[in-house]
Amino acid sequence: MCRMPWPPNGSPWTRAASPELFTASLTTTIMPPIIEMQSLTKRFGRKTALDSLSLEVEPGTMLALLGPNGAGKTTALRILMDIWRPTRGEARIFGVPTRRLGRREFEKIGYVSENQSMPGWMTVRQLLDYLRPLYPSWDEAFCQQLLKAFDLPTGQRLRHLSRGMRMKAALISSLAYRPELLILDEPFSGLDPVVRHDFIEGLIEFTTQGNWTVLLASHDMDEVERLSDRIAIIDHGKLIVNEDLDALRHRYRRITAVVDEMEPAWPGSAPAQWVQPRLAPRAVEFVTTQAESADEAALRERWPTAHGIAIEPMALKDIYLAVAREARKHLPPVS
Length: 335
Known about the structure:
The chain is an alpha/beta fold. It has eleven helices and 14 strands. The protein has two domains: 58-85 and 103-245, Rossmann fold, CATH 3.40.50; 252-323. The longest helix is centred in the middle third of the chain and has 15 residues, at 193-207.
C-alpha cells in the first residue's frame, strides 16, 4: 500500500480550486486493491485446484480465506507469492503481475506458511541479523518488542526449536520490517494453546500499529473470527462467499421453534433462504441465510402452532458449516 502525503502536492487544499478539481483530486487518491486475482485457474494433471477464482483484497483489510482441505487455499497463496504459476488467469499484488514480482514488491510482503522451510543451522539471532539489511523498512525496536512478547530464545538454533517456536521466529522475521501486506497460510496449525495465544497477540499487536493488509488462510475459526473483518470461502477452487464478517453475521440466523406436531414435515413452500432443516418430535430448527423481520411470521404461517420461537445469531464456525454444506449440494457427482 502506497503511503501518499496528505494533502497531496498540488491538491485543492493547497490552491484555489473549483468543485470539479476537488472531486478529481479525491478520485486520484482512491487506492487500488492490494491483491487482485482474475479468473485464476490452476490444474495439476486432471485435477483442478483453482477454477476461475476472482477475488480482490482492499488496502487495510484483514481477509480470511476459508475452505475445506483441498479447496485451493494454499494453491492461491502460492500463486500470489509466485511459487507456482497459474494455468490460466492472472494475479496481481500492488498492481504488479505476480510472475513479475521483484525485490521492490517482496520488500513490502511478509509470508508465513505452515510448511515454510527455515535454515535450521542458524540461531534466531543469526536469522534476524541476516534478514535485517535486506529490508530497508526494518524496524529494530519493533523486532525487539516482538522478541520480548514472544519470549523467543535468540541464541538457540532453529532446528532445536519446537514447531511453535519456529513459527514464532517466522512471524517475527516477517513482521519486523512492517510489510504492507502479510500473507499467512495455516499459521496456527499444530500449535499448542499457549503458543497460539502468543501468536495471535503478536498479530493483533502488528495490525493495531498501522493500516496493514492481511490475507489469512486457516481452519481455526475462533481465531479467524477474532482477527478478520472480511471472509472469503472457496470450495473445489470456486469462490462461494466474499463478504464483510459483520454483514455475514447479520444475515445468518439459527431459528428454532416448538410445534404441536409429533412428526413435523418440512414445507415444500419454505423460502429458499431457509436451509439445513432439522426436524424432531415437536421441534423444528433451520438456518436462514437472509435474516429479516418477517421470518417469525413466515414460520407461524407454515406451523400455526409454533411457539417458543428463538432467532439467534451464529458463530462464524456455524456459518461456515452451513455455507459449506449447501455448496456441496450443488457440486457435480464424483466420477
